[in-house]
Amino acid sequence: PHEVEAWAAQVRELARARDAVVLAHNYQRPEIQDVADHTGDSLALSRVAAASDASTIVFCGVHFMAETAKMLAPDKTVLIPDARAGCSLADSISADELRAWKAEHPGAVVVSYVNTTAAVKAETDVCCTSSNAVEVVASIDPDREVLFLPDQFLGAHVRRETGRTNLHVWAGECHVHAGINGAELTARAQADPDADLFVHPECGCATSALYLAGEGVVPAEQVHILSTGGMLDAAKNTTKSSVLVATEVGMLHQLRRANPAVDFRPVNDRASCGYMKMITPGALLRALQEGRDEVHVDAATAERARASVQRMIEIGQ
Length: 317
Ligand code: 13P
Ligand code: SF4
Fold this sequence. Notes:
- Its cofactor is [4Fe-4S] cluster.
- Keywords: 4Fe-4S, Cytoplasm, Iron, Iron-sulfur, Metal-binding, Pyridine nucleotide biosynthesis, Transferase.
- It holds the Pfam family NadA.
- Its EC number is 2.5.1.72.
- The chain is α/β, with parallel strands linked by helices and 317 residues long.
- It has helices at residues 2-17, 30-35, 42-51, 63-72, 95-104, 118-121, 133-138, 152-162, 175-178, 182-191, 206-214, 228-237, 251-258, 281-290, 299-314; strands spanning 20-25, 38-40, 56-60, 77-79, 109-113, 126-128, 146-149, 167-169, 196-199, 223-225, 242-246, 263-266.
- The longest helix is centred in the N-terminal third of the chain and has 16 residues, at 2-17.
- Bound molecules: 1,3-dihydroxyacetonephosphate and iron/sulfur cluster (SF4).
- The site of 1,3-dihydroxyacetonephosphate (13P) has 12 residues, from helix 3.
C-alpha cells in the first residue's frame, strides 16, 4: 500500500506539472481508476475531454477513446500510456468495408458505436455509445434505413428496444463480452434467483438475460441491460444484497466502491480485457515523465469524424 501511495503521489505531481488531466475508463486497473481525475464510461469521458481546460489529456483506456478525445480537443496534447492498447471490436470493421456496405444501401443513415477507428467515424453520420445507442437510433427518421455497426449484440439490443425493422447490423463483436455466454449466466442466475442481473449490451448473453426474464427464471424487474455508467447508477439504487455482473471485470471495482453493502459478483471472472490492462501503473508514470505515446489523428479524417461524435454528444444533452 505504501508503494501504491508513493506512485499515486508521483502521478499527481507529474500531472500537475504538465497541466494534464488523467481520465480512466471503468475497465482500467483499480489503482489507475483511483488515481485518475475522472473515471467513467466512454460517453462521459468524451464529454470531460471536450470540456476540460487542461492542455494535456492522459487517456487511460484504449486507442479509439484517446483518438476520440483528440478529435474533440485537437489543440490539446493527448497521451495514451501504451499506444498498443487496441480493441477487438474496433478492429471488426475497416473504413473500406464500411464504404462497401454503404454502397449496398444508398441513403441509409450510418450509426457507429464509438468503439471504431477515426477512419470509420469519418464515414459515419452519428456515433453512439452503449449508454445512448437506443436514443440515437430513435432520433432518426423512422422511414430511413439505418446501418448500425460494429457490434452485433448491441445492434440486436437497439433493434429490440426501438422495434425498427429497417436497422441493419454489422456482425462484429468484442471478444471479451462475446465470451460471457448465456449458459454461464443461466447457471449463475439459477443458483441465485434473488440477485439483480446487470448485463452490458455487448455481451453474448444479453438475449439470454431477457429470455430468463421471459421464462420467469428471474423476475423481469431484476434484469437490467446497462452501459458501464448505467451500472454505476443502478448499483447505488439496488435493493438486492447481491448482483450478478456481466461485463469486463474492471467494472467491479467501481461498483463495489459505489455500494459496499452489496455483493457484486462477475458472471464470468475471466472476462478481462487485455488491451485495457496494458495501461499499467508503470506505463502511466512513463507517459507523464516522457510525454508519450502521443495520439495523432490526420486533420482531414478528424474533421469528418468529429462531426459524427459531436452529433452524438448533442443528442440527449
Ligand atoms: P461503455 O463504457 O460505453 O459502456 O463501453 C464499454 C466498452 O467495452 C468500452 O470498451
Ligand atoms: Fe474493446 Fe472489448 Fe476491450 Fe472494450 S472490452 S476495449 S470493446 S476489446
